[in-house]
Design brief:
The protein folds into two domains: 69 residues, Winged helix-like DNA-binding domain superfamily/Winged helix DNA-binding domain (Arc Repressor Mutant, subunit A), CATH 1.10.10; 188 residues, Rossmann fold. The chain contains eight helices and twelve strands. The strands form four sheets. It has a six-stranded mixed β-sheet, with helices on both faces. Strand 5, helix 7 and strand 6 form a beta-alpha-beta unit. The longest helix has 18 residues.
Amino acid sequence: MQNKKQRIAAMCAILAKHPNKLYSLNYFQKMFGAAKSSLSEDAAVIKQVFADVGIGCVETVAGAHGGIRYIPRMPENTRALLLKELTEKMRDTSRILPGGYMYIADLFCTPYYVDGMAQIMAEWFAGAKADFIVTVETKGIPLAMSVARILNLPLAIARRESKLTDGSVFSINYLSGSSRRLQTMSLSKRMIKEGTKALVVDDFIAGGGTVKAICDMLTEFNIDVVGMGAAIVNRYPQKKRISGYKAIFELEELSETKIEISAY
């Protein structure tokens, strides 16, 4: 049987690895062979330390199906440093691509940055009571997957082209807000359940056509969209095809020689 310090260290690691997952005291009792009273004291210590440091809280759920879970929070100074660093990186003019585009794939494939942005989004929508998260392939997947991990929710991915492995799918044609081209989006019916609540996450919103298409598709299944979040939103066009979304950054200007972007 491990001593108190070992138990607390192990419990911290387990709770932090799977945020928002409810762990019963029986789970830890079997793991450590300690009395529930001792584990309750350990949980109280962890709860106090996490609160003092400002990295979240440990919530205790009473009852036969209760337990403890870790709800992470990002300290304000950490958030400010992350947003400052990302803003500076995205303003680098070497990211300007022909055709009025900006290269950001490296940022969305760097765990430190994508997990940081996901934590900000997870805090926005922690109280939305979503049942699952939806995104569209492909650049939004890392961000959406990280948000799903933090909120302990499953992720459904809408595809541009359906695969045989998706099984039965629902497809919708929509007008892209950025390219103004007619595109197709498909979602596996096995990924969703009628009458549930969804959170839509994407990497970039231009005119809002893609996110609107996702919302329209979910409406067909009587699914309530309880939140829409994006890493970056383009200032123009100012009139989007959606409303009520939240974004971490606003792209104010993108020219051949300049990128102006700021955190909300």
